[in-house]
């Protein structure tokens, strides 16, 4: 395969992949019906706080170099560089340098028939024990993950639906959101849901330097602790599902397991059939260990949540917390 066709192939893969955490991001419907002609969609609907990347980031490109133009508001002198020196704070027993591979990836999966676990990208097979990540579990369990990197809508309805069905969900919230809405976080914690680190500003990590990435994660930890008085759990999600092997290692080194997913939806734009759409999208891909990604900012998701919880239980699944999902050793 020539370099050119390789690039083209990669672009097609990326264009059909279903990127979640798509507080704005991509893409096409998952699965066999996915069309390679589907182009990345940007919707301002789920834009969290104003951030340059969210207006300039239509899609990942297969170029291995981060684009300095997309780096938001931070020192241009901090140029991305492969970090091969272990941090001073790193476990002294761990002398292995972290991956220098910055090939950009955008999470996706290949949907199969209802009830069958999807296929996952080839690159997952290359993840090492220093690149802690999970994307699907096993058994009759479902992991509902709610991305709150965008607008916080229908909060009452959401919490009521979860509570009435006795479902504990996993929330991936941005620091900016909880800083502006501390009560939102307090209610979620009070209801016993799990909260994970979804960065401070929801900036694409593939555009950031190591120091900027550390700051995104640490800033979230600080604001979370200010509001709850507790340390945040050690699970994490990349904004837009954009990552590279180096960043996966870096996040692991900071103590986090990255959570991807095995169901996501085009829920960053209005749904043609209202609440029927998220219901069908989820039920048609329900499988063992299903990690479901839904965005808080979709009103149709919130309207469908009660019915989704009931139907998943009716089909014999239990809801679990992502903390039950352990990365490969
Ligand atoms: Zn997100």
UniProtKB/TrEMBL annotation:
Pfam families per UniProt: Polysacc_deac_1
Domain of life: Bacteria
Species in which this protein is naturally found: Paenibacillus oryzisoli
UniProt-recorded Gene Ontology molecular function terms: hydrolase activity, acting on carbon-nitrogen (but not peptide) bonds; hydrolase activity, acting on glycosyl bonds
Feature: compositional bias, Low complexity: 70-90
Signal peptide: 1-22
InterPro entries membership: Glyco_hydro/deAcase_b/a-brl, NODB_dom, Polysacc_deacetylase_ArnD
GO CC, one annotated term: membrane
Name of protein: Xylanase deacetylase
Bias type Pro residues, positions: 59-69
One of the GO BP terms on file: xylan catabolic process
Domain NodB homology residue range list: 140-320
Entry keyword set: Carbohydrate metabolism, Glycosidase, Hydrolase, Polysaccharide degradation, Signal, Xylan degradation
Listed Gene3D superfamilies: Glycoside hydrolase/deacetylase
Region (Disordered): 35-98
